[in-house]
Write a structure and sequence with these properties.
mainly alpha
Length: about 240
């Protein structure tokens, strides 16, 4: 894990700043754009809080999963020449690094809005914290599958990026799902990121609807994706070592 960070950014102070600052600035930029462009808030309160609770789960999902896919097995393939190092080791190291980065991003994102004068303190802190954990877990699962598949098939990067974009636009980050027809609500409920957003917002709004939130589906889907990634890594380890 340390070798990967030092290889990409060296031993300077700017390495950690870039790692945390890029997803943090992405989230703050999106939140500001949406808050300015759409001043009306569907929840009837500060629009910044509504958009922030939708943007943060997206940032915590897309950036770690993309980094795990790009910088785990494929970028550190030379380490596989060491007999003790297996593809799963590279995967786990990158997952740990991205989990730590994600915690910093979530903390600084919330702190920045709080210092900006926005009432970003959740009414149910336990729900908000568990939602962050669940979102990071989902990003690790998606990233692990992407890391294994990208090491086997280069075209997988397009599949994963397009999937994450589709997940974002159907996550409910920019709209209230309750306002959609029943058929569309059923369709977007299969998106695990949708449940991350619902769970996170449930920690901020007392009157937010719990009707569509399924914590079991989110955690179960993440677990299945992660197990699938580990099974592929173990079953095709020989091919991963040969590439």
């Amino acid at each position: 894990m340390l070798r990967d960070l030092r290889t990409r950014f060296g031993r300077t102070f700017w390495g950690p700043v870039i790692l945390v600052g890029w997803p943090l600035s992405h989230g703050l930029f999106l939140m500001i754009v949406y808050a300015v462009a759409r001043r009306l808030n569907p929840m009837g309160a500060d629009p910044t809080v509504f958009f922030a609770t939708g943007v943060l789960p997206y940032v915590l999902c897309i950036h770690p999963s993309r980094s795990i896919m790009s910088f785990s097995i494929h970028a550190n393939r030379q380490l596989l020449q060491i007999p003790l190092v297996k593809p799963a080791d590279l995967l786990f190291a990158q997952c740990i690094a991205q989990a730590v980065i994600s915690f910093w991003v979530a903390t600084l994102f919330t702190l920045a809005l709080y210092l900006w004068g926005i009432d970003i303190v959740p009414q149910r802190p336990d729900e908000a914290i568990f939602a962050v954990f669940a979102t990071i877990y989902l990003s690790i699962a998606i990233g692990s599958l992407g890391g294994v598949m990208y090491a086997l098939v280069r075209a997988w990067v397009a599949v994963q990026i397009l999937s994450l974009i589709a997940m974002y636009f159907t996550s409910g980050a920019l709209f209230l799902p309750e306002a959609l027809p029943q058929a569309l609500r059923t369709a977007i409920s299969f998106n695990p990121l949708f449940h991350c957003v619902e769970w996170f917002r449930a920690g901020f709004y007392d009157y937010y609807s719990y009707g569509m939130l399924s914590r079991t589906y989110l955690l179960g889907t993440s677990t299945v994706i992660l197990l699938l990634a580990l099974l592929i890594e173990r079953g095709l380890r020989g091919r991963l070592l040969e590439h």
